[in-house]
Design a protein that fits this description.
The protein has 7 helices and 15 strands. It is of the alpha+beta class.
């Protein structure tokens, strides 16, 4: 029932009851979603996704972790020592993960809403199926380390072997397959600034020989880093004009914080105090060619003695990092409480 007051008579009055009997409600014909967040990491992974198919170890990537041959110095004679065959290649193996979002459709629901729906419930459920799956995937990307039914996320993909001693079926530690380790730093309860972010970007390049594509951190961490930028801003006024004549006004602050050519983005799912430096040349979301938010179609629930239908939206994919040493994790930053 509508709330009484304003131009509506008081609740419970004769006028209120009479008005509600003969007056339709003024619905806005759209459903405003309140419960999901956008995430730059998911956007980057979906945009850079790779195709996968079936098979055991659905994503198998040969990686080189040692020399195949050795170089030798020689003299005028051109002689060299007899070469030996050395193992340099290994298989990084990943299994695709299955996510299911069932979509129910009651038979009488369709009859009641037929030609009378403001928001068709079946359309709302279909739209929500994708949203809830994206939300669950984004959460797993930052939290999951050991649950083999979910995406193995960044805590294992970008690690030095402390959290995940095995990744992609390859063991890694300081003594075994050290080439399969990421750099993991402890910032030490300091504020994130351009100078110390640059320090860890340099460490990433030194360890992996490539610049990261971008960095992600929590909004509280990112906002504290932004304070190191905003205090240095300057405004230049064109002679003969002023800010009051500019219809757009002066611009301040940033959507991404650029440090040494690496943009740093805020992500609502990233743990506060942590910054990941990622390289999209080697970090991809592999999606099954027949399992990218695919809908199974509706099937009748009559075999269960009920009038209605049920379908499902499927996602078959896995996060794959084929060069962990090109990426870095930094923990221990201070952050703002937002």
């Amino acid at each position: 029932m509508p709330i009484g007051g304003a131009i509506v008579p008081a609740t419970g009055s004769q006028q209120f009851n009479e008005l509600t009997y003969v007056t339709r409600r003024a619905f806005i014909p759209k459903l405003v979603v309140q419960i999901y967040n956008s995430t730059p990491l998911m956007a980057a992974l979906i945009a850079n996704s790779q195709s996968a198919s079936g098979g055991v170890s659905s994503v198998t990537v040969p990686v080189q972790g040692a020399q195949f041959v050795n170089a030798q110095w020689s003299d005028y004679s051109g002689s060299f020592a007899q070469p030996s065959v050395q193992q340099g290649a290994y298989n990084a193996e990943f299994d695709l993960k299955l996510m299911i979002s069932p979509v129910p459709f009651l038979g009488m629901e369709g009859a009641v809403q037929n030609d009378a729906a403001i928001i068709p419930l079946i359309e709302a459920r279909m739209n929500d199926a994708t949203n809830v799956m994206m939300d669950a995937m984004a959460t797993a990307l930052y939290t999951n380390t050991t649950n083999t039914q979910q995406f193995i996320g960044l805590p294992a993909a970008v690690d030095d072997g402390t959290t995940a001693a095995t990744y992609g079926n390859i063991t890694r530690s300081s003594t075994v397959n050290s080439w399969w380790r990421s750099k993991v730093y402890a910032a030490g309860s300091v504020n994130p600034t351009r100078q110390n972010i640059l320090q860890y970007i340099s460490g990433t390049v030194k360890n992996g020989a490539e610049m990261p594509s971008f960095g992600v951190c929590g909004f509280g961490t990112w906002t504290l880093l932004a304070q190191d930028f905003v205090g240095q801003e300057q405004y230049v006024i064109t002679p003969g004009s002023g800010f009051d004549n500019d219809p757009n006004g002066p611009q301040a602050a940033f959507r991404a914080l650029m440090v040494a050519g690496v943009p740093i983005y805020p992500d609502p799912y990233c743990p506060e105090g942590t910054v990941y430096f990622l390289n999209t040349n080697y970090l991809s979301l592999y999606i099954h060619e027949q399992g990218s938010f695919v809908f199974t179609g509706f099937e009748s629930t009559l075999p269960n003695w009920q009038i209605g239908y049920v379908g499902a939206v499927l996602m078959i994919a896995e996060l794959v990092n084929v060069k962990p040493k090109a990426m870095t994790k930094v923990t221990g930053y201070n952050y703002l409480s937002l």
